[in-house]
Predict the structure.
Amino acid sequence: MSFINLIAIDGPAASGKSTLAELIANKLNYFFFDTGVMYRAVTLAALEQVKNLDDEAKVTDVANRIRIDVQPASVQDGRVMDILVDGRDVTWQIRTPEVDRKVSKVSAYAGVRKAMTEQQRRIGERGNMVMVGRDIGTVVFPDAKYKIYLEASPEERARRRFVEVQKRGEPTSYEDILASIRKRDEVDSSRAVAPLKPADDAHVIDSDGKNIDIVLEEALQILGNPVS
Ligand code: CDP
């Protein structure tokens, strides 16, 4: 199977994957799909429905039971899309520090990943898509024609995320965000199932010290400037 029209963008927390993916999708008139929202949605639902997130069977059951929908933004409050869990708008609830702290734990469960990977494959099959995550090029669509792995130092990523969270008016500190990013990187990279790592055939872009225009230019070169 070859997914010629699928562009996989993977990388660690807050590396700018979604921003880059959105720009590429707009330029190519592709769909943009961020798989991180699915793991965040499962985590939020698990926090609400399961007392102890160490209970892998119960968390996996939540992942299999809930319905996650993504639709065009219905409110102009800075969101790119609406994220719904069982019909309820959770667009901002999935971005809280609590979800940030727990999402890597939930995402490491094999049954959770199986459920999400199946859904992502169905979504990606429609083609003309930029799909963002941790394991898109390695596990979800290993046959994607284009694979980009976006890197940046933890400090640079924490700075970017700090600005984002501040803009939303949420109380936070750079140090807390840096610690949370480091922790997530560690858990995401060391898990047994689908760990975060570049696919062997991925193009790695290091975005340290580069603004988004430069990163976009590098990405478009990798994609062979299909719409120049
Ligand atoms: O936006 P940010 O980089 O902070 O995170 P995200 O892309 O929303 O992903 C949140 C978490 O979901 C990650 O830290 C991973 O634990 C998990 N995730 C994953 O395991 N596999 C994916 N394909 C996407 C996200």
Q: What stands out?
A: The chain has two domains: 1-30+128-228, 35-126.
